[in-house]
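haha ok so turns out i had the wrong file open the whole time. this is the CORRECT one, sorry everyone. sequence first:
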Amino acid sequence: MKICTHCQKHNPDEGINCWGCGTPLPEEASQSGKSASPVNSVLRDFRPRLVDFAELGEVFEFAEGFPYPDWKRVSQYIRGKIPKNNWEEAWHEIIIRWLTKFEPPAGEKLYLGESENFFLLSGGKPGECDGVLKCAEAIKTKIRQTLLGLTLKEVYGKHVIIIFDGLDNYYRYISYFYPDGEYPMSSGIFLKKGYGHIAIPQFDERNNQAILTHELAHNALMALPVPVWLNEGVAQILEMQFSYQREMGFDHDMDLIESHRTYWTTETIQKFWTGDSFHAQESAELSYSLAKILLNLISSESGDFKNLLQSAHFCDAGEAAFSSNYGKKLGEIAGIFLGPGDWSPQQNLLKSRFTKAPVPPKI
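then structure:
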């Protein structure tokens, strides 16, 4: 098997030029197990039909040894060159090409698995990876049923999950998306920028279901401009409902009552409403906890929660949508737990804070 040095297509040993892009092939075939590309049935069956990768050109930037596509350029190519009824297949071809650019750790292989709605790239055993795909499909179905009735933006391409071989490579990979280098420790993340995808540090049979539920909830809400606190609250509630391995629920939140009432003030609560407190090490745990508590309190109120999700916007922390659907202010709900005080989001601060969408935190 000869692998094209330009487009990474697999060619027969007797090939002279790549069948995909015409690039001259190396004289010697790649030895079994030495290819950097993940090898399995997904790739053996891969024959690009729509995307001319030679015409598209090199769209991958490499940083820390990982490939990062120029998604804007890819999107422009697909929209400009491919008929709309073929966009789904075109994105399918692009995603396979992207995932084959990942190189496995020394002496190891990468597995590229595919199911109806997902791609999974992992160094785990095929059986383990197939289990993750089945779990992800089941969770997606549950989330879709739970959010039934929401109007979501049409998106193309399958969900992508990348499971790394440990924390070092995980943080090296996601550091590209956080150039300031400041973020709390995490067990997984939904990376919204570009082509939204999920990154997980390592295969963890015990916690995979909880992690996937949380991150797929973010994935489901990615096209809605919901504020961070609402997004994280929904993800945690679904995580508790769908995963039976989760040990820390509302009991843990109640253990933090004194910490909550000590930390939150009329000033610090504003960083909760903007989402900034979810990124800071000293306030991340309390922020996630408070988001979950507020969602629990809202569930006991009379109102239309799905319409809240549909209409809430980060620019006002969801205040207008909450008031419209529940007839109350967010500060009133926060006060039920935090006690007397001015807990409402300050709209002048939010207006000056947001010139673009907030960066989603990790958990």
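The two ends are 42 Å apart (CA to CA).
again sry for the mixup
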